[in-house]
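Weekly modeling sync, notes
Attendees: AB, CL, MP (scribe)

Item 1: holo prediction request
CL wants a bound-state model with NAI before deciding which constructs to order. AB pointed out that an apo prediction alone won't tell us much about the pocket. Agreed to run with the ligand included and paste results into these notes for async review.

Input as submitted:
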Amino acid sequence: MSVVTTTMHGDIAVLTIDNPPVNAASQAVRQGLMDALIATEKSKPAAVVLTCAGRTFVAGADIREFDKPFLEPMLPDLLNAIEAATRPWIAAIHGTALGGGFELALACSHRIGAPSAKIGLPEVNLGLIPGAGGTVRLPRLIDPVEAARLAVTGKPISASEAHKLGLFDAIAEGELLDAAIALAKDAAAKPLPTPLLTRAAPEVERAAWDAAIAKLTAKARGQNSPHEAAAAVRDALDHSGTDALKLERERFMRLKGSPQSAALRYIFFAERTVGKSPRTKGVAPRPLAQIGVVGGGTMGAGIAAAALLSGLKVQMIERDQDASNAGAARVEGILGGSLKRGLISEAKHTALLASFNADSNYSALAEADLVIEAVFEDMDVKKQVFKALEAACKPEAVLATNTSYLDVNEIAASVADSSRVIGLHFFSPAHIMKLLEIVVPNNVADDVLATAIQLAKALHKLPVLAGVCDGFIANRIMSSYRREADYLLEDGALPHEVDAAMRNFGMPMGIFEMQDLAGLDIGWAARKRRAATRPASERYVDIPDRICEQGHFGRKTGRGWYLYGEDGKPARNPEVEALIIAASARKGIPRLSFSEEAIMARILGCMQNEGAAILAEGIAASREDIDVTMVNAFGFPRWMGGPMFMKDA
Ligand code: 3HC
Ligand code: NAI
């Protein structure tokens, strides 16, 4: 059966694309549309309505076809043919019309959207630019700067924005198909609009254009595609539609073969592969209506807010009434911030507060389905909390720990039924960061694992499964390259040089700036805890301990690796630099000078070696788990795919 079917509604032909899950414009869809076009040009209905079955309009070209030679009919040729049709073509858009799907809609003579529809050109996120006329037709339909915004940022816009910009002729009131058919009848009675490709490009003043583009590409850092997308829209303004289309396609094909696009396509699919386990196939998760959170500090408050914002009821437990009030105030602060930024309505804010309660008595957790412990990072404290949870919660409630480094097997063993215990390692700020490391202890039950994965989905998080070890995937790798960065200091580099190398590589922050931001005391406590078991042969750099001993914990104390003045910007810290130089001298290490490449070679090599060990030990099941973690936990540049992808490339 064809993936494109035609039905007649009076004298209007309705074409329906049905290619689950997202109606990607695969070869079969392109062929089906070409056949339908030829047929309708022959049968001459009054107009054609193009619609999609399932959850969305065409969400783009089929990315899985990008690693093979493209097969006929090519998307640009198909769209040119649709644009040249003698009948009006009405794109009836629901869900998301993205990339090639948006371009398909642009080739139609008219567009109508469901109120909840979104449209966008996300090709830049795959290291590409639109390759089927998007950069050419769009600036001939709407304000060219707005066209550039869509192509350069890759961010989709809502139906109402699309309508305002002139992208949608109408927004459907009631049933989309009925409204599209009504629009088709109306269009059939009028002359066809001039095809976008043959329209003259609007004039745009060069200086204003350059300023707008500079703003749009400011966040691209080392990623090429946003700059390429801006250049493609510029080409579209400088050339005829037909010539610009050729230039766009050349640029698209060149980028498709580029290492950045290969990396971004890899990470796109990697993010959709991780967080699955053969153990949970066909296993029903436990219920998840009410969540308990123990500890209302930085993490507990963030986790509570994340759960509330996703529609779950939350009961928080703190040590005493004062701490409970402080925890509640933190949660209210986060929700207040969401209200202020317009992310939630006044009514929703009120409803969320009504779904939240903070207490100091564990008996309030009697109805909780899943409890996340986020108290101090101390094994004895955590064990006491788990004992209290065991006594207070129903026996089927899942008990989770947000520990950063501690042994989750040991925590699990502190309760009689260890199969109900799992690690849920959130990242800070927990209501914003998408990554959730699910730490899988030896005895965990399959349905507890399934519940953890289900919770990640409910919270709109990206779950990665990790085995039990010191630091799991994320913090184990981070500790390892943090150690390497400390070695670099003794070997001759200074903090600002290491940080600059990491930033210029594409990380949002260097490792020393990051430590100052997180607080140096956390790492200090971990090092003290490990001191007894640290092998005497291990190279140990005590510079960060010296900084902490002086009471300098980073940003929050105004001093750390850097000095922080009124403007909050990090400035080089001469005292720390003197400490570093003295440490090299004390150990008799000659101080060498390092290029940025040399610094990154050591840091990246370290990430890759630790990643390889994590794979070999089965802590991560695949390289995708490691790369998705590094990209989403520490801002490893997506356009490089991740350290393990780079190693294999
Ligand atoms: N091609 C092939 N497969 C795709 C796909 C695409 N364009 N988009 C999504 N999929 C697959 C996913 O891999 C996933 O497969 P799986 O179930 O086997 O893991 C499945 O569809 C569902 O995807 P999600 O899990 O992401 O579903 P969501 O509902 O969360 O999101 C979406 C749906 C918003 C459409 C999201 O999938 C998305 O952003 N897709 C990519 C859109 C895109 O980048 N389009 C541009 C493509 S490039 C292009 O069009 C070039 C053109 O200019 C020539
Ligand atoms: P925090 O110090 O901000 O908060 C801890 C809270 O736990 C405090 O409010 C304290 O009053 C409360 N608490 C202590 N003992 C308690 C008990 N017995 N019962 C109830 N409440 C108790 O610490 P933070 O940063 O929120 O960390 C909490 C946990 O999350 C730790 O295990 C930490 O390793 C982990 N974590 C921290 C991250 C971070 O970036 N801060 C990131 C990921 C995990």
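Recorded for review: Residues 294-300, 317-319, 323, 327, 374-377, 381, 385, 402-404, 425-428, 518 surround NAI (ligand 2) (CB under 6 Å).
Action items: CL to compare against the apo run; MP to circulate these notes.
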